[in-house]
Amino acid sequence: MVRKLIFGGRYFGKGSQDGGPGEEEIEHADSLWTILVYLNAFCVTDYFPWLRWITDFDGHKKIIRNAIVTARKYQDPLIDDRIQQWKDGVRTEQDDLLDVLITLENTLLTADEIKAQILDLILAGFDNVSNNIEWAMAEMINEPSIFNKAVRDLDFVVGKNRLVYESDLQKLNYIKCCVKEAFRLHPVAPFNVPHVTTVDSTVAGYFIPKGSQVLVSRLGLGRNPDVWDDPLTFNPDRHMNGDKEVMLTDHNLHMFSFGTGQRGCPAVLLGSTMTTMLLARLIQGFTWELPLNEPHDDIKENFHDLAKAKPLLALAKPRLANHLYPSS
Ligand code: HEM
């Protein structure tokens, strides 16, 4: 989805014969995962910068540099090509985010700046949605009463004669509660991306001097027993608020979904739409069964980054009329 938004195409490279991702796409996606893993990793030289002069102390620099080279090997030629198309007048209409960045009127970006922005956008929109949906689906498949409630929500609001559209999302409060509950209980990483304070501040009685590196614990917020009843249980109903529309953000920081303030996520609407739409379509379009010998999905998390330790494995069967599926 992110690739399509930015580059207007589904995959880098040729794609496989069955229409799935090909080798180039897999190499590109792997390099993005590597960058994200090391972005969130604990790195000794972040805290003892003088060690950087001696050596690449924990080897992170080399790994992340190589991963960036790989990612840019696929992205940058497309960007150069597109800039040329606009210069030559071959392209005249904006089709995707790359076109928008190239044709910004007030802030003319250089090619290097566009390349840096594109890498940042691709990384920012890459892992949150997939992590959230995998956890939400696993928790819901394990608890059929929750799954069935979500199906009823969809059948009531949308019915079975058409697919769910973006215009329905406002009314799909229970689906949004499931997404929000997965953000609360299963954040994409233990901490937010580090921020540095630019002025002396006092927060909740604590003095934080200018220049401090601030890390917010996503688990400390989302699983805080002083704020959430039974915090380790997946219970989407806790986010329902009568008939009021459910929002995935939490500006009080009782949990960490999109963050808040000046450095919070600038793509709240886009991220909310992508995530809710994906979960809604997966639930509306298919029934889901675990493999025969597995009564429950194993919902252990990976110790390092809180992703699922074992990928969710479930069998999807269409539940709507054939003509509603794009490939039929
Ligand atoms: C469900 C999806 C998403 C979630 C949960 C999410 C969440 C976040 C969070 C927590 C931050 C850091 C906030 C902080 O540290 O205070 C962030 C930053 C950011 N996000 Fe998102 N995001 C999502 C989707 C996207 C998408 C699709 C894009 C763009 C294509 C995007 C672009 C960005 C950018 C550019 C930043 C950096 C902002 C800055 O540091 O100034 N995000 N996002």
UniProtKB/TrEMBL annotation:
For the keyword Metal-binding, the answer is: yes
Iron is among the record's keywords: yes
The Swiss-Prot or TrEMBL record describes its family as follows: Belongs to the cytochrome P450 family.
Q: Where does heme bind?
A: 265
What organism is this sequence from? Mikania micrantha
Q: Which UniProt keywords apply?
A: Heme, Iron, Metal-binding, Monooxygenase, Oxidoreductase
A Pfam entry, by short name: p450
Per the record, the domain of life is Eukaryota
Name any cofactors this protein relies on. heme
Q: Which GO terms describe its molecular function?
A: heme binding; iron ion binding; monooxygenase activity; oxidoreductase activity, acting on paired donors, with incorporation or reduction of molecular oxygen
Q: What is this protein called?
A: Cytochrome P450
